[in-house]
Write a structure and sequence with these properties.
Elements (H helix, E strand, L loop, with lengths): L2 H15 L5 H22 L5 H15 L10 E4 L5 H8 L5 E5 L2 H9 L5 E4 L17 E4 L13 H8 L7 E3 L5
Helix pairs in contact: 1-2, 2-5, 3-4
The structure holds S-adenosylmethionine.
């Protein structure tokens, strides 16, 4: 196994085993990984086809908002990382995408992709995210970030809050990497 891949895989394994790992540990791991993420993630993660992952969102959005253009659909990419999900959404015609992530270094990499409008550097958990209003977004993606001390089930209520439009919630969630 290549040394870079091994190093980052070890960090993820440590995170899954360390009971007392904190959000600062998560942030540190990704701040460290950011510059090497795009080159090494496909060798680490089982869920690496971002193009395929965003397709269900495209289908759901066109059914839920038949009268809205894709450029009018506001999407929040939770745990956006370096922006691999945003790139695929943008290829489908979505231009109003914001990125949320706990790691500023990951968001700096995402910024280079030139597909996000706003960057929100915060931890998403069970607390109200003050930067985001209720129902501010039409759809939400969260890819490779559920579980393993990342986005926990207790954050689901907050995720619903930010995309609530009456009874319509559009979520696309990919499997976690660890
Ligand atoms: C494996 S990466 C996935 C990045 C991107 N979604 C992808 O598929 O390539 C996980 C990301 O989740 C972020 N993250 C982990 N826990 C978080 C939390 N509670 N709130 C916000 N971001 C979090 C990390 O900083 C990292 O960028």
């Amino acid at each position: 196994m290549e040394a870079t891949v091994e190093k980052h895989l070890k960090n993820l394994q440590w995170l899954s085993q360390e009971k007392n790992a904190t959000k600062d540990d998560v942030r540190g791991i990704y701040d460290n990984w950011a510059a090497e993420y795009d080159g090494s993630m496909p060798d680490i993660c089982q869920c690496q086809n971002w193009k395929q992952i965003v397709r269900p969102l495209d289908v759901a959005v066109s059914k839920a908002f038949p009268d809205k253009g894709k450029d009018e659909i506001k999407i929040i990419d939770v745990a956006a990382g370096t922006g691999l999900t945003g790139v695929e959404l943008n290829k489908l015609g979505y231009t109003s995408i914001d990125a949320l992530d706990i790691s500023q270094e990951m968001l700096n990499e995402a910024n280079k992709k030139d597909v996000y409008k706003r960057f929100i550097c915060t931890h998403l958990g069970d607390q109200h995210t003050s930067e985001i209003q209720s129902g501010e977004y039409d759809a939400l993606t969260c890819v490779n970030a559920l579980g393993n001390k990342h986005i926990l089930p207790t954050a689901l209520e907050e995720m619903c809050r930010i995309v609530s439009k009456g009874k319509k919630h559009i979520f696309v969630v990919g499997v976690t990497s660890a």
